[in-house]
């Protein structure tokens, strides 16, 4: 067996300069410095609020990472890879929903005790969540106006706006497998939001009947879409439960604004044919 000092790996009581520790690899010290309540003296529940939303941002980062892989898998014709990653994404969505259970342990009065410290800060301003919507084809160019020009969020969102969506990669994947996807669907403006297409729906309906592997992919995509809608619904109810019909801190109409996005699917053509299956 090699000498642990020569290998660069630490053994208990024999840490070396080259060893990688749990705290070092995860940068735990840096991470734990990021939770800074603004209330003074600090309100107890503000820490929970900060941690929950920072964790959301980490999961959003992970979802973007996974859905970028889905696009790459589809472009390379890797059906199994895309299916596996969609399944992981759906599991992450379940975790996002579960976190709302924790947030709902905070009463309206407990939230009100520090809400004014948020000033104009709002979840509406989450650039990563807007990126996620754009990547999934729910593109609204006007949302760029809510981010400071030249900021990292604005730059990332503009790139997502110009880039093909997951649905675009999916249609390209089907076309490369020899399925007659209309040219208009393949060549559409990537900055436009995904809209239902009856010609595409006919092709998907036939594939559901003819190709088992593809039907499994379709079901995973519907499952992910349903998970996103579930999260939106639970988020709206959490906001209503916490602040009622007060306006949002970022200037939006609060729960009323969020309610407008409910039950909007990101893969509408897969939903449109459900009654025919």
Report on the structure:
- The chain is built from 14 helices and no strands.
- The protein has helices at residues 4-7, 22-26, 28-31, 44-75, 79-103, 108-115, 127-135, 152-162, 166-176, 183-186, 198-210, 212-243, 255-259, 268-272.
- The model is unreliable at 4-10 (pLDDT under 50).
- α4 (44-75) packs antiparallel against α5 (79-103) and α5 runs parallel beside α12 (212-243).
- With 277 residues, the chain is an all-alpha fold.
- It has one domain (4-29, 48-111, 124-276): Methane Monooxygenase Hydroxylase, Chain G, domain 1 (Up-down Bundle), CATH 1.20.58.
- The protein is globular and about 65 Å long.
Set out the fold topology:
Blueprint: H1 4-7, H2 22-26, H3 28-31, H4 44-75, H5 79-103, H6 108-115, H7 127-135, H8 152-162, H9 166-176, H10 183-186, H11 198-210, H12 212-243, H13 255-259, H14 268-272
């Amino acid at each position: 067996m090699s000498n642990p000092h020569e290998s660069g790996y630490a053994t208990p009581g024999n840490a070396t300069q080259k060893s990688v520790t749990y705290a070092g690899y995860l940068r735990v010290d840096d991470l734990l410095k990021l939770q800074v309540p603004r209330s003074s003296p600090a309100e107890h529940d503000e820490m929970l609020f900060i941690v929950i939303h920072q964790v959301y941002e980490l999961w959003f980062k992970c979802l973007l990472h996974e859905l970028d892989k889905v696009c790459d898998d589809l472009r390379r014709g890797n059906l199994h890879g895309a299916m596996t990653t969609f399944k992981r994404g759906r599991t992450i969505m379940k975790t996002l929903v579960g976190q709302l259970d924790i947030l709902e342990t905070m009463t309206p009065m407990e939230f009100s005790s520090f809400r004014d410290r948020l000033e104009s800060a709002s979840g509406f301003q989450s650039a990563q969540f807007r990126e996620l919507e754009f990547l999934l084809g729910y593109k609204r160019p006007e949302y760029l106006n809510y981010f400071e020009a030249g900021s990292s969020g604005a730059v990332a969102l503009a790139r997502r706006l110009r880039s093909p969506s997951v649905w675009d990669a999916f249609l390209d994947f089907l076309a490369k497998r020899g399925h007659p996807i209309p040219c208009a669907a393949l060549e559409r403006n990537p900055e436009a939001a995904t809209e239902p297409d009856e010609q595409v729906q006919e092709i998907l309906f036939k594939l559901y009947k003819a190709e088992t592997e593809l039907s499994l992919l379709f079901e995973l995509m519907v499952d992910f879409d349903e998970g996103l809608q579930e999260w939106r619904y639970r988020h709206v109810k959490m906001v209503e439960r916490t602040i009622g019909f007060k306006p949002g801190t970022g200037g939006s109409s609060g729960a009323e604004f969020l309610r407008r996005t409910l039950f909007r699917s990101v893969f509408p053509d897969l939903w449109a044919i459900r009654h025919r299956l």
